[in-house]
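Q: Structure tokens for this one, please.
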Amino acid sequence: MVTRALSFGSRAADYERFRLGYPDELVDLVLAYAGRPVRTALEIGAGTGKATRVLAAHGVAVTATDPDPQMLAELRRHVPASVTTVCSTLEDLVPTTPFDLVVAAASLHWTDPEGRWGRIASHLRPGGVVASFGGPMSLADPRVAADVAAAAAPHVADPDVPSPDGTPPEAAVQWPGTELLATPRFTDVRQHRFGRRLSMAARDVVDHLSTLSSYLVLETSLRRKVLERVLDVLPERVEMNADIWLHLARRA
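A: Here is the predicted structure, written as tokens:
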């Protein structure tokens, strides 16, 4: 997991180019849930700033953290100068002034589960909000998905990071809501799903796959060959599911 977590920096520009951003209405929902002004936010695993820029556009002073300096360098190209950046994992981050909000956009699964919620709570003021959101982009047609899996095998067994606690995709409450409900550190847990369906050119799908950690850990020439095989089996247009799961909770 550590190797995969730190695999993005070498392709930071591609990550920025080919990964989807986040809609304004998602941040609107987070801010409405807070029920009071959200002036400051700590972002965990900010990457290239896909969520950072939306928060900043809503007037939130964001401290964006990421353990990869290459990702942070790319982030600085796309966010306002008001954003503070810190190169650190959640585990190494020392609490200072508490924040109104802690955000993890497609990054919480890379953090250490041991003590995760205590660490997050230590960065929040009482009643402060944690918001975790994200979700894998997946092929909508099962037949196309099977063809892609066969083309990528045996080098890419599972392109997605599985649910950290084994929660099945059909469960009513998805991770990390399952963990939030179990920890005394947080209360008022809520879950929302933003449905997104996209039609993409085959080349765009392959470009997106090239930014996934399961492909990034492959040696360059092998990764190129695997992606070429995937491109060969894709139809010209590909339907993709890109739902976003949002989980919210308050520091108890």
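A few notes: The first helix runs from residue 2 to 5. The beta strands are 40-44, 61-66, 84-87, 99-105, 124-134, 138-139, 186-194, 197-201, 237-241, 244-251.
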